[in-house]
Amino acid sequence: MNKRIHKFISSFFKGFVPIIYMIFILAGIISALVSGLIEYEVFSELYKKSIGDSSWLIFSVPFLVVFSFEIVKIFLIFLNKQSDISANSHYFKDKRHFLNLRYILIFVSFLSTLIYSFYNLQNPEYELLLKQKKTELTSKFELDRDAINKTYDDQLEIQTKEVDAQIALYDGRMVTEEDYKFAGRQEFRGPRFKEAKKNKEAQEKRRSQIINTVNNKRNIEIGELSAKLETDKLNAENNLNKSNIAGNKMLKATLGTFKKNFPEWSYILIVFILSLILSVGLEYIIWSSFTVLAMNHGEIFDFGIQAGKYENATETEIKMNQADANKEIQTVANLARSIVNTVKEKSDDLFKRGKNQIRNNK
């Protein structure tokens, strides 16, 4: 029973460990992709003109920059580990510069993660809350404007009612005079017609003045209301920028647990800490994954270095290496001949002894 359990556990781990190993390497690749995507989001926002109208991402300058950064960063992790475990002296050339370059790329990743975190966590609901506040202010403005219009419309109706009655009266007199005039088949309009017409025009002028006066007051009041609306919108933007009301709900709830009205610097500090954790976590996963990969499969990389060594060698070096190789081959050949001769001599000696022993027995 114990043997079966031991065999089962052994078989399980033989199949389980390679799967975990592959997942571990995959986690490093995914972390590199996440780091690259964060950098791309930041660079694409900073250099929007460089993206262009092309639908092909490969022609985007931010994409090419981020792709180069991540590939070089991964390669330098691999190279650094190979310099520790390989006896090849070529790994030690310019090692300090490679390390400095790697640190610079890690700093770029951290800075991008910091910017990305602040962009998404610092007032992430700012646009939504600002839009809601502006909608409320606009709705209130429209209600107030409608109330103002109704007030002045009522004033116009009251003030023009008497004037309209006078205009209708004088208009009726003019019609009466015209009927009287045309009844006698004459085109002459008497003094009473002219007087009625003059009074009607005076009342129409008065009516226009009343309308202009009321509308001017209306426009002034609505203009003041519009100016107040713009001021209220600007104040709403400033208040949202200064307060933490538009912050991330989860972070606000966490900070609110310790202090109800927490200062803004504490919110900024926790965003900075989260950015640091995210950046360091991604970089360590990338480093550990590709370091293990270099430890287990570094001979492929080392073979490439050796191949490059012979490709860059001079003709003299190649001849010297060939001469050394020929000497080694000659030494091995001489050793082989010596072994063959020794074996042959021993065989002949044994054969002679056996032959003599047979004769003596006879």
Summarize this structure as a short list of keywords or feature phrases.
8 helices; 362 residues; mainly alpha; 2 domains; 86% helix
Protein described:
The chain is an all-alpha fold and 362 residues long. The protein has two domains: 15-123 and 263-311, no CATH class; 126-246. It contains eight helices and no strands. The chain has helices at residues 2-46, 61-85, 95-121, 126-183, 191-242, 249-258, 264-311, 315-361. Helix 2 packs across helix 3 and helix 4 runs antiparallel to helix 5 (191-242). The longest helix has 58 residues, at 126-183. The chain is rod-shaped and about 185 Å long. The chain starts with a helix and ends with a helix.
- Please tell me the overall pLDDT: 73
CA radius of gyration: 48 Å
Number of strands: 0
Distance between the termini: 67 Å
Q: What is the makeup of the main sheet? A: none
Q: Judging from the principal axes of the Cα atoms, what is the shape?
A: rod-shaped
Tally of individual helices: 8
| Content-based structural category | mainly alpha
How helix-rich are the residues, as a percent range? Answer: over 70%
Task: Return the string of H and E elements.
Answer: HHHHHHHH
Low-confidence stretches: 303-313
Number of folding domains? Answer: 2
DSSP strand content: under 5%
What is the topology?
Layout lengths: L1 H45 L14 H25 L9 H27 L4 H58 L7 H52 L6 H10 L5 H48 L3 H47 L1
